[in-house]
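Long-time lurker, first post. I've been practising inverse folding by hand and with some scripts of my own, and I keep getting stuck on stretches where the C-alpha cells seem ambiguous. Below is the full C-alpha cell string for one chain I'm working on. Before anyone asks, I'm not after the true native sequence, just a reasonable design that respects the backbone. If someone could post their per-position residues I'd love to compare against what I wrote down in my notebook.
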C-alpha cells in the first residue's frame, strides 16, 4: 500500500492531482494540507501538524498527532518519518510546491530521504512531476512537454540521457552549471531514459506550459 503525504502548498488543478490517487492509498494530511482532502474527495487516515496554519479538527474518528510549533522537523518530514516507522515504502507527495520558495526547496528533502532507502517516490504539483534519478535507469514518457535534470546533492557524474532531443553520454552537471540540464524533450514516439553513475539529479517532468 502506498502512502500519500499532503502538504499545505496551494493546489489549483484538483482534477489533475486527484488522477494520481488510488483507492487503497494511506493518506497523511499535514496541517493545512487537511484543507485539500475535501476537494480531492478523500478522507485522511492520519493528520499530523502543529496547526499553525489551520485549526486542529479534534476528530475522534481520525488519528491525529499534534506537534509542537518549535521543532527540528517540519510537519511533512515528521509525517514521512512516521510513515517509515509504520512500514510504508512507496510514496506520493502532494501540496509541497507553492509560493514559498524556501518551503518548496526544503520539501525536496522528502524525495532524497526516500532515495536513501531506495523507496520509490514522486512529488506532483499543478504542472509537473518530480522524482530523483540515480543509478537505476528512469524512463520518461512522451506525455511530458519538457523535462529537466538538476543536481541536488553536489556534482552528478556519468550522466546518460537517451532518446531525447539533447542526448548525453557520461556527462557531468555541477550545481554552478545546472542550466545544462534544463528543458530537454523526449523524441517523438520514444521514451527517454536517464541514469547517473555518481550523485543524484532531480528529474522534473513538465506537463503544462
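-- Answer (accepted) --
I ran through it position by position. Result:
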Amino acid at each position: 500500500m502506498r502512502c500519500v503525504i499532503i502538504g499545505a502548498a496551494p493546489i489549483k488543478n484538483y482534477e489533475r492531482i486527484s488522477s494520481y490517487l488510488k483507492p487503497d492509498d494511506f493518506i497523511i494530511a499535514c496541517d493545512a494540507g487537511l484543507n485539500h482532502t475535501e476537494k480531492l474527495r478523500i478522507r485522511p487516515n492520519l493528520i499530523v501538524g502543529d496547526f499553525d496554519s489551520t485549526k486542529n479538527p479534534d476528530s475522534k474518528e481520525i488519528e491525529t498527532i499534534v506537534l509542537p510549533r518549535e521543532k527540528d522537523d517540519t510537519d511533512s518530514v515528521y509525517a514521512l518519518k512516521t510513515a517509515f516507522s509504520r512500514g510504508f515504502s512507496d510514496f506520493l507527495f502532494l501540496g509541497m510546491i507553492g509560493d514559498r520558495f524556501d518551503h518548496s526547496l526544503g520539501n525536496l528533502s522528502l524525495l532524497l530521504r526516500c532515495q536513501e532507502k531506495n523507496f520509490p517516490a514522486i512529488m506532483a504539483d499543478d504542472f509537473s512531476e518530480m522524482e530523483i534519478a540515480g543509478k537505476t535507469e528512469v524512463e520518461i514518457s512522451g506525455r511530458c512537454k519538457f523535462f529537466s535534470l538538476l543536481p541536488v546533492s553536489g556534482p552528478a557524474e556519468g550522466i546518460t540521457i537517451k532518446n531525447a532531443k539533447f542526448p548525453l553520454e557520461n556527462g557531468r552537471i555541477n550545481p554552478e552549471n545546472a542550466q545544462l540540464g534544463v528543458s530537454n524533450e523526449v523524441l517523438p514516439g520514444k521514451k527517454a531514459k536517464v541514469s547517473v553513475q555518481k550523485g543524484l539529479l532531480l528529474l522534473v517532468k513538465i506537463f503544462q506550459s
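A couple of notes from the structure itself: Helices lie at 14-18, 34-39, 75-85, 101-116. The chain has two domains: 3-126, 132-206. Happy to go over any region you disagree with.
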